[in-house]
């Protein structure tokens, strides 16, 4: 391309009055011309004086662009000889083939298919929603009740006195005072047997399960999960190349059949304190059975204790980990439900002989930081703010729980069952099998009410129960009735005996 042609080509594309820097536009246009082959390798670029004159811009602008092109490898320059386009053709790479199109230009290879099969499977089953607040989003505490003043006071103190030491990566296992505080707290409220050494600070349940499956399992190993179960854990297991086997639950918790017991898994993931999402508590007899089975067959157990602090009218059973005398149970939890979800601090209590390995693995895999947050949380626990906060909001959540139950009962009486209402931050409104709970969810969200379809939590095809997960913790009392009236209007379109397309339904 001649100098006149290049100037003409640039003049057609430069927009001096666009408001952006002329330098940036000129650089982008010339580099694109080189990459697209308009300026071939070895072509001499016009002198900065000539090009500046042709474009009616400052010569220093052109000089700056040429210098940048040389720095980034688009061109080379030698004193007295001018600036030349570099050879950027891919066939200069050793071992590459020179495949040409009919027009003589190199053809691009076919792109590889995007996601791996297990990556695509993960995306196909994503349960995450961008709507994370509002009535009746499950699993969300009322962040407006968070003790901001106490937190900010502690945070300011930590910044004043320890900022330099708290701005680096976290040590293996996490901030030592927080590990001590978590160990003491779990021992007092959940009968968890641990030392600070066994506590590994994580970003939450997801990371705890991820590191556990990486260290305990090989690709292809079998992992038992509850049926139904939390979609996040299920997807973590599947995306790790493990075989997730859903084990049905009854009123006493996970209930494996004789056939299932005959094929022991490598890992068992359970929510014994408050089954997610149905809410039953694993009985003491079932806990003892599961521990003995794991001991006899060399299985590991992950106990996901996500919201046991919130029980209404009864004390929780001791943790499964507290009953374990064989060192097979990993106890996982977080502060997302007790404080606020964005905190992203959790913990994994590890059997003592594996504690150092897990602490090192978390540091190696995730390069943890957030020391300032961990230090604030440690002092927050030490001063007793967590315990008093839980005591206060438990009463608040209990009132809202009763308010939601009352709203459901007024509307439906005993036509619809309420499941799992004795603990946690949500309940399940059971629906007849003929009702499309996914459609109800979509239409409710369109009207500003957030619920989750129970059927999404099942893995076995054809065995799904229908219902709606409804959170009440973050819904002020005056908002419960109006929001439920909106939701009920959506539900009623299917309860009246007609399919949304107008096809009559059989009674379930």
CATH first level of the largest domain: which class? Alpha Beta
Strand content: 5-15%
Instruction: Give the low-pLDDT segments.
Output: 96-102, 498-508
Mean pLDDT: 87
Could you tell me the number of beta strands? 14
For the largest beta sheet, what order do the strands appear in spatially? 3-10-9-8-7-4-5-6
Q: What is the CATH H-level superfamily of the largest domain?
A: Type I PLP-dependent aspartate aminotransferase-like (Major domain)
Taking the sheet with the most strands, its summary is:
8 strands, mixed
Question: Structural class per helix/strand content?
Answer: alpha/beta
State the helix count: 17
| CATH fold-level name of the largest domain | Aspartate Aminotransferase, domain 2
The best one-word shape is elongated
CATH architecture of the largest domain: 3-Layer(aba) Sandwich
Structure description:
With 508 residues, the protein is of the alpha/beta class. The chain has 3 domains: 3-90, Winged helix-like DNA-binding domain superfamily/Winged helix DNA-binding domain (Arc Repressor Mutant, subunit A), CATH 1.10.10; 145-383, Aspartate Aminotransferase, domain 2 (3-Layer(aba) Sandwich); 388-495, Alpha-Beta Complex (Aspartate Aminotransferase, domain 1). 40% of the residues lie in helices and 12% in strands. The protein contains 17 helices and 14 strands. The strands form 3 sheets. The chain has an 8-stranded mixed beta sheet with strand order 3-10-9-8-7-4-5-6, sandwiched between helices. α1 (3-11) packs parallel to α3 (48-55) and α7 crosses α14. The longest helix is centred in the C-terminal third of the chain and has 28 residues, at 385-412. It is elongated, with a radius of gyration of 31 Å. The N and C termini lie far apart (76 Å).
């Amino acid at each position: 391309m001649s100098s006149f042609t290049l100037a003409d080509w640039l003049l057609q594309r430069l927009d001096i009055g666009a408001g952006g820097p002329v330098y940036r536009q000129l650089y982008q246009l010339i580099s694109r011309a080189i990459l697209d082959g308009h300026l071939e390798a070895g072509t001499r670029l016009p002198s900065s004086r000539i090009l500046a004159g042709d474009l009616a811009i400052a010569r220093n602008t052109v000089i700056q662009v040429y210098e940048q092109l040389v720095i980034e490898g688009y061109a080379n320059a030698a004193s007295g000889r001018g600036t030349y386009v570099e050879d950027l053709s891919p066939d200069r790479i050793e071992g590459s083939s020179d495949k040409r199109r009919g027009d003589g230009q190199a053809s691009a290879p076919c792109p590889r298919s995007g996601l791996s099969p297990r990556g695509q499977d993960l995306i196909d089953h994503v349960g995450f929603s961008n709507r994370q607040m509002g009535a009746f989003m499950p699993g969300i505490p009322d962040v407006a009740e968070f003790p901001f003043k106490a937190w900010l006071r502690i945070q300011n103190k930590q910044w004043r006195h320890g900022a330099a030491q708290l701005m680096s990566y976290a040590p293996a296992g996490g901030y030592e005072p927080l590990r001590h505080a978590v160990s003491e707290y779990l021992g007092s409220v959940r009968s968890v047997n641990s030392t600070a050494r066994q506590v590994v600070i994580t970003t939450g349940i997801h990371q705890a399960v991820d590191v556990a499956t990486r260290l305990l399992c090989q690709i292809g190993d079998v992992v038992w999960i509850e049926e139904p179960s939390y979609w996040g854990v299920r997807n973590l297991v599947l995306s790790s190349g493990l075989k997730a086997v859903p084990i049905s639950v009854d009123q006493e918790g996970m209930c494996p059949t004789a056939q299932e017991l005959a094929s022991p898994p490598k890992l068992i993931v359970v929510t014994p304190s408050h089954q997610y999402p149905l809410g039953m508590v694993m009985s003491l007899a079932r806990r003892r059975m599961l521990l003995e089975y794991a001991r006899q067959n060399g299985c590991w157990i992950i106990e996901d204790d996500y919201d046991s602090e919130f029980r209404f009218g009864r004390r929780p059973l001791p943790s499964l980990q507290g009953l374990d005398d064989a060192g097979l149970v990993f106890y996982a939890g977080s502060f997302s439900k007790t404080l606020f979800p964005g905190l992203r601090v959790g913990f994994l209590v590890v059997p003592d002989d594996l504690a150092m390995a897990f602490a090192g693995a978390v540091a190696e895999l995730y390069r943890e930081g957030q020391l300032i947050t961990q230090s604030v949380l440690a002092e927050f626990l030490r001063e007793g703010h967590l315990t008093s906060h839980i005591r206060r909001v438990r009463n608040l959540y209990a009132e809202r729980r009763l308010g939601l139950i009352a709203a459901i009962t007024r509307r439906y009486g005993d036509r619809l069952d309420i499941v799992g209402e004795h603990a946690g931050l949500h309940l399940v409104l059971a629906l007849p099998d003929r009702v499309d709970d996914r459609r109800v969810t979509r239409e409710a969200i369109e009207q500003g009410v957030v619920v989750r379809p129970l059927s999404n939590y099942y893995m076995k095809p054809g065995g799904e129960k229908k219902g709606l997960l409804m959170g009440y913790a973050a819904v002020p009392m005056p908002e419960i009735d109006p929001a439920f009236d909106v939701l009920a209007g959506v539900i009623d379109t299917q309860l009246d005996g007609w399919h949304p397309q107008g096809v009559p339904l059989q009674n379930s």
